Fold:
Amino acid sequence: MGELVFVGLGLFDHHDISVHGLNEVKEADFVFAEFYTNLMAGLSLDSFEEEVGKRVTVVSRKMLEDENGEQVLQKAEGGRVAFLVPGDPLIATTHVDLRIRAEKRGIRTRLIHGASIISAVIGLSGLQNYRFGRSVTIPFPEDGSFSETPYTVIAENKARNLHTLCFLDIQAEKKRYMTINEALKLLLGLEEKRKRRIVTLDTLAVGAARVGTVEASVRAEKVRHLIRFDFGGPPHVLVMPSEKLHFMEAEALITFTHGPEWVREMAQ
Structure:
């Protein structure tokens, strides 16, 4: 029986991988990696290959989704494969599908977890994890049209007094990474259409960039100010808080994110 081990790489570079994960890579017969679900801005593949003493084959979204990960699965049927993923391995549904396919073919699977943007941005902002609702991805417009799903999810979460974590679209093949500024402009465009006052110029938003690095940038402000703020290079992520905050969340936003004093007025 072969084996497929999903290994989380963490948030920024190859030093974020756990010792457990590093040992799994060193012991693997074959090593694959994908970098289309998130950007690891500090990763040097050459340095990583030198450290583990293995060649790493980078796979594309097309190979995993359109070709069902067949290249990875064939290797895993006859040996031990380490499959490297930014962040935590099974956050992306693509990887859940690959694991299911492996198990159905009699390939043993295991997980070596890594730091995830989901927990990291919550800790960085000081917002409380149990107050987050459904997360959503804000995609780039296609052919002039834009999905209204992000606006709808934010509205539903706000109705339940919950925060919304918004992942920003990544098109790795095109080296295109959505910024917080672009995401806010898209949400304001939807507000003009829907007119429910869910995302206005006076709405509180929290933007974070390069989470997990010493150069991480996080800022809480009204949309009208945040949309002009320079967060620097990618990757970026956006949080749309609920209309009401726990008093500790309000203090955390002021202390950790240079948030304005008026957020205390949102505290319950």
Summary: The longest strand covers residues 3-8. The longest helix spans residues 180-194. The chain has ten helices and twelve strands. The mean pLDDT is 95.
